[in-house]
Gamma-secretase subunit APH-1
Amino acid sequence: AFFWLLSLLAASLLWFVSVQLSGREDAAPLLLGAAAAVLLQELCRFACFKLLKKADEGLATLSEDGRSPISLRQMAYVSGLSFGISSGAFSAINILADSAGPGTVGIHGDSPYYFITSAFLTMALVLLHTFWGIIFFDACERRRAGGLGLVVGGHLLTSGLTFLNPWYEASLGPIFILTLCTGLWAFSTAGGSFHNILKCLSWKQEPEGRVVLYSALQVPPEE
């Protein structure tokens, strides 16, 4: 969350300087500012990965068995979720501030679905950041430039689609399709499979009477 706040601060400073120098606040600088904010967020995500990687190596050195008590996948999930919650919280604050009034949404012919649509977009963004964190960390660990490029490209696409608002049909639909596809990709990256889902939903009873539930992200142990 701290790294995401750093990216927000850097993007705000960049926007302030660019507006002061150009004296413009029209669509072109706004698009460039959104793209710069996305790139700064992904840069901070990479810095977060490097820091957590160093921490993981330090924990492994201090442990008795030479292994870190926290896996890199757990760090990726927590990092992505923190990015998403921070981003969603800042988005929701502005919307809640507008909801306090004065005025009524849609009274001048605007869409009356502003708040509900914003809530769904915020939810999708929180999920996307969580999924991007898992995919990004795995791509950095395996040195896969294609995975990194797709994460950055997906982030830029999501940010760009929001400029279609208030044409919500054109922005909300593609963003949720992207969220679903990215979620499936992150699930596969984390080691999930359809077979594991079936194992997770199933259960068995051991001779001692203890019930064992399997995780959808790992293969059940051998008998």
